[in-house]
Recover the amino acids of this structure.
């Protein structure tokens, strides 16, 4: 038995032992529960090829998707006060910020801004990272949107904002709510300069973000299945004591009720934006009057 146990069995186990498989090779779709090969999922722009579910993506992936040939230049956003209220729940707010910045990159927050060209047209894009504290809007986000608007005016470029947010950042209290009017002012700066202001609603766009700059785009697009609204469906049902319609707060429902101009799959977003910007930025050409009579 010693010979079998000590020599033969280890040899057999070495032959039949399964190779260790890295955990990041496969991803399960939260909508249809299909197991997806991660390389295929990335090739499909993080969209499930079975059910069309749009996974959340970060600002870097968003910039590569929207700008021509993935070429863009990020800008450094203004520095803001960290933990102005010295807030603490289970952790200090300053500690939460450090953890999120370590995960996404030093100095980062829930929004990033870059400029480049889309369809050959100059554009500035402010894209949210939901992975950073749920994309919540604090002082840094307000400063980021303002910086994006000022850059768009300076470069005579279109401003495109891509929110993905749970709303205002509770750790900054009233200071976070003050970012709602500040981002409205930012959008107005672009509109007063007669430049396009376009919003692309992604999953989720809720709370103070949905109630401010995300709702006032000259054109509002949305990714399929995105949840958009101020309060959650359960809270609304409990408040009005009525059953909400199927698909309430989804992008398709909002499109059907006139709150979204178009629902665009992720793979078609860059082309759709290029066409929209081409139409909006086409120089005005007055009709030529016919001499000697009416045109």
């Amino acid at each position: 038995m010693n010979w079998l146990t000590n020599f033969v069995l280890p040899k057999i186990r070495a032959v039949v032992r399964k190779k260790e498989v890295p955990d990041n090779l496969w991803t399960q779709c939260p909508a249809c529960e299909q197991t997806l090969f991660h390389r295929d999922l990335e090739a499909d722009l993080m969209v499930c090829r079975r059910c069309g579910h749009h996974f959340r993506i970060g600002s870097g992936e968003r910039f590569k998707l929207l700008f021509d040939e993935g070429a863009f230049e990020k800008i450094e956003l203004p520095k803001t006060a960290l933990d102005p209220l010295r807030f603490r729940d289970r952790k200090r707010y300053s500690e939460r910020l450090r953890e999120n910045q370590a995960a996404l990159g030093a100095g980062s927050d829930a929004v990033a801004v870059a400029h480049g060209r889309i369809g050959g047209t100059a554009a500035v894009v402010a894209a949210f990272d939901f992975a950073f504290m749920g994309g919540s809007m604090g002082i840094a986000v307000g400063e980021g949107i303002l910086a994006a608007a000022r850059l768009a005016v300076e470069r005579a470029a279109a401003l495109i904002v891509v929110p993905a947010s749970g709303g205002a950042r509770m750790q900054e209290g009233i200071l976070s709510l003050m970012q709602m009017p500040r981002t409205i002012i930012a959008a107005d700066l672009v509109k007063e300069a007669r430049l396009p202001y376009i919003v692309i609603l992604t999953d989720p766009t809720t709370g103070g973000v949905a109630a401010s700059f995300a709702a006032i785009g000259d054109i509002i697009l949305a990714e399929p299945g995105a949840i958009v609204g101020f309060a959650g469906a359960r809270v609304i049902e409990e408040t009005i004591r009525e059953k909400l319609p199927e698909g309430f707060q989804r992008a398709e429902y909002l499109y059907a009720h006139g709150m979204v101009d178009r629902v665009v799959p992720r793979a078609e977003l860059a082309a759709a934006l290029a066409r929209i910007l081409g139409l909006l930025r086409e120089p005005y050409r007055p009709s030529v009057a016919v001499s000697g009579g009416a045109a």
In short: The chain has eleven helices and eleven strands. Residues 57-280 form a domain with the 2-enoyl-CoA Hydratase; Chain A, domain 1 fold (CATH 3.90.226.10). The chain has two domains: 22-55, 57-280.
